[in-house]
Amino acid sequence: xxxxxxxxxxxxxxxxxxxxxxxxxxxxxxxxxxxxxxxxxxxxxxxxxxxxxxxxxxxxxxxxxxxxxxxxxxxxxxxxxxxxxxxxxxxx
Amino acid sequence: xxxxxxxxxxxxxxxxxxxxxxxxxxxxxxxxxxxxxxxxxxxxxxxxxxxxxxxxxxxxxxxxxxxxxxxxxxxxxxxxxxxxxxxxxxxxxxxxxxxxxxxxxxxxxxxxxxxxxxxxxxxxxxxxxxxxxxxxxxxxxxxxxxxxxxxxxxxxxxxxxxxxxxxxxxxxxxxxxxxxxxxxxxxxxxxxxxxxxxxxxxxxxxxxxxxxxxxxxxxxxxxxxxxxxxxxxxxxxxxxxxxxxxxxxxxxxxxxxxxxxxxxxxxxxxxxxxxxxxxxxxxxxxxxxxxxxxxxxxxxxxxxxxxxxxxxxxxxxxxxxxxxxxxxxxxxxxxxxxxxxxxxxxxxxxxxxxxxxxxxxxxxxxxxxxxxxxxxxxxxxxxxxxxxxxxxxx
Lengths: 92, 394
Description:
The structure holds two protein chains of two kinds. By secondary structure, chain A is an alpha+beta fold. Chain A is built from two helices and six strands; from the N terminus they run βββαβββα. Chain A has a single domain, classed as 2-Layer Sandwich (Folate-binding fold), CATH 3.30.2270. The longest helix of chain B has 18 residues. The relative contact order of chain B is 0.20. The model of chain B has no long low-confidence stretch (mean pLDDT 94).
């Protein structure tokens, strides 16, 4: 099992976490047309190699954070917390 | 089985990926349309990707009418494939059971059964007593953690030998003049003025007015070479097989709630599959937590096989789309076609997808059978959701 370095709790088994995919920036709801929304929703890079992604420590601190992970080897670099985002805002 | 060739300077069609989709498309191009100046290139070997790593289950009991019609065509083609290719593919229509452990699954199954019947596909919801008659050692009692309250029974479903399907298409294509180039990795796709003009490989340049991407888990990387973005995320899916024992399991048994499907091969091994790994990855390493979870789920259904030993496990890569339906047809780059996004259900669709893609290449028109699965649907908001029938862990 791969170990995910939670910035709050330290390295834990990936089964404690929920995976939220590639880190993207959500467009402002009132500033974009449907095409932009669909691009944000569907078009992922899906890289073979290092990528930045969002995880949620469901069985721990219940915080979202970002990690660097290599999708070819599943090697993981240390995680970093998001600034002021809370879980309720993130999951909506 | 098939010959080796030097790369030629150009072909009428270059197909990337020597799995069931690529090989079958090459075969149908030659057999149905007389287009045989076709190269199938693969960075590995024939059937080394998902086509040789799936659990070889065939069925057509999907949820949307488009999906049902499509997979039914595939099952029809599989039924006569051994005769058509003159190669024994060992198709065994043993019947297919999808178990329901809660009211919402049962509701989806009734829905699927009615959609199936309207499309002329044999499919019916059955009771735990009827399940027990089909699979006598299944625990259908009330005192389990997830009691079985019914099942969708699909008699035409079954299993096939997936390697034989790949080899059969490769050999039959070769007989008709198709060239199969193994160990030939595409490193770039050339375009001129919005039109594809060929591919670069580790063995040299190839010119081609039509390039077809059939690379499953690697599909988004290959399409990116042509500048085409695909809404695909690659997840590994793991499977395992036990030591062989005497025949005791006839039907294919699937449980969405328990994330597991089981069948017994003609050799006697039990083949298990599960849902995809919970995070995107191109790694094909198996994991211990997969086997542990799998064992607990299988024993929930069939406690009597507790002493059986797992012989080996493996993983394949699945190209998952947002609506659990494939992407077939044209892209914004003229001449660059895709047959991708097959996720966890690509093998069973191979023949029908290939037949339709060959028709598209030959005529330049998208066949009605695959019109709903175009790439433009994501930008235009016309998703074809098969989550209820295609995603194992829904």
